[in-house]
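Quick one: co-fold with 6-O-phosphono-beta-D-glucopyranose.
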Amino acid sequence: MYHKQIERFPDTFLFGASTSSFQVEGGQTSGGRGEALHDRSPKKAGITDFSTASDHYHRWEEDIDLFHELGLKVYRFSMSWTRIMPDGKNVNQEGLAFYDKIVDKLVGYGIEPLVTIYHFEYPSKLVDDFGGWLSPKSIDAYEEFANVLFTHFGDRVKYWLTINEQDHVIKISERLGLSKESEGVEFEGQVQQANYYMCVATAKVIKLAHEIIPNVKIGPAVNPMPAIPASANPLDVIASMTFNELSHYYILDLHCRGKFSPIHWKYMEDRDICPEVKEEELQLMAENTPDFIGINYYLNQTVAHSEKEKIELRGQGVFMEEEAGIYKLVENKEIPQTDWGWNICPEGLSIALMDVYNRYQLPMLITENGLGAYDEVVEGEIHDTYRIDFLANHLKQIKDCLSLGFPIIGYCAWSAIDLVSGREGMDKRYGFIYVNRTNDELRDLNRIKKDSFYWYQNVIQERGYSL
Ligand code: BG6
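Sure, here it is.
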């Protein structure tokens, strides 16, 4: 489609970048931090060891100086639940003090802090005490944590994200405090119940934020992988629409409408895995909708109809290749992939933004988007042209959507600085700033600005004029 383009992104547009506490901070046992679920999970040797991560806990000052030099207008980060409430109940002043320093330094530089309340880092103690997100008690625990954050930081932090990628919490057993072996028929029901509790918790926390913080903006960060039909066969079109319902709209409909997506409800009914639902909780959701929707976009999927004529209980979490009788994911030769097999499809970002806006009419903020790649240091420099291409192509899609009038308030690339990838370790780098360590060797952890750093600095300065 041809349309006249805006020359530059609006001057209010929040160019930014993101991190999450457990992936970047390290300092696992410092400052009174308590144990989180991922500290307990079995480690893939050298890979998912978050004890030092990028050592941001000790180098936060140098890092924020670099974010300022990069020109960030917004910095998205999460506040570690276990640093602030080590046992999920009592407040640790040292934890609050750590984030005070970060928030004050950002604000001093005129960088808007965007805080994720919960990004995969759950206090183990709450799982031991009552089963974490599998219990309705988790709603109160999460509300209490949010209350501490809003009361303490609400004078300086106006932008908040409730839960990061809920779909990837509930469908990954260890993020719920369950073992891999516990995945099975019963797990299906637990997934749906946890999802529902998290939606109730989100609505309560949105309500609380609106009561406590003047001019607050709060919303969830979801991860749509918008499906494109594998062919012109209408069955593939229906399969791809259904995939979208079961992969992200099933959460967003509860957040933004206080209703279950009909396809999602029927899916649960057929499998006898419906959660326990209270009318007044749905009402609470309908009355406390987000101010904006955070979109984490990395990849899309190509989807075909599944010919199987039966209902299967999957018994396991996310990334299912086939949902019997509903859809199956297929290869798409038109779409290149990263070294980790993730589809690279910038247009998918436009599809997600257009679709989400058309369904909910809420402003959107891209909360994550980036390329995980192996980076090589050559004579002290990192020539990451592949990352520049990836980010430029995605930013062009955003410029296009802005030109069409879609309300997009900002863009946070993943990630501001190299950090430990959730599942793949340090080899899979995303940052504008290189951190000198590998999966197996900590080295000196020195910071090096990559070529993409200077490129993004220019994009921000000229507000995307050359894109
Ligand atoms: C998102 C998460 O799922 O994707 C991040 O919010 C994560 O925490 C990012 O790091 C990239 O995924 P991965 O597996 O490459 O680290």
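If it helps, The longest helix spans residues 185-212.
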